[in-house]
Amino acid sequence: MDIEIRYIEKDEILESHIAEERANGRHGDKAALPLITEALIDGRGVAAFDDGIIVGFGIAYPLKMNVGIERFPTTLLDKVAVLPTHRRRGILNGMMEFHMRDFYERGETLSGLGASESIIYGRYGYGIGSMQVDFSIDRRHTAFITDVPTKGKHRFIDSGDALDSLPEVAERANAKRSGFIKGTKSLWKLYLSDLESQRGDASELFHVVYEEDGQVDGYVSYRTRK
Known about the structure:
Layout: E1 3-7, H1 13-23, H2 33-42, E2 44-50, E3 53-67, E4 70-82, H3 91-105, E5 110-113, E6 153-157, H4 159-173, H5 185-191, E7 206-212, E8 215-222
Parallel strand pairs: 4-5
Antiparallel strand pairs: 1-2, 2-3, 3-4, 6-7, 7-8
Domain N-acetyltransferase: 3-149
Protein name: N-acetyltransferase domain-containing protein
Pfam families: Acetyltransf_9
């Protein structure tokens, strides 16, 4: 089997998106294509081709990561996937080798990875840098904290205003936090796009901001379920 590994062209973005979704057991959401296209243009899409057909995919975003008080050029690797018809054939190894060589030759200091199965990537030198934790709490055992002093106000905003406000708040809140990666506007747009395929059985996203002296100092984004 002769596998070609290279960057994708702009007219291959749709096929890449479909391949990545299939590899993860989903059908591609065509409504997301304009947003995904914009995000991919900000990054470097790498694909494995078998006889001209995309069978593996990953995208590398050139960003910057906080390390102490400095920010270092960092390649964030995401969406890495190989179709189930082509697994255990060395395709993942080939794509990772392509990525490692590429970011080294570009002079980018670090390579980060967003992975749902982190155990796979230790062989390439990656380790756990941060973790995400999801909690489900029975509301009968919860209560609001009422003695927090505040002098500001809360208000709902729409998704357009969220794109203008939320990234700046996140960056300010994490300015000195090691490991924080500043996302591009296209990645934030994708995150806040609130496509129907992202909702499951929940509502559209609601956004509420907290303001003091005319400055947004915090926010919450949430969904509701019936």
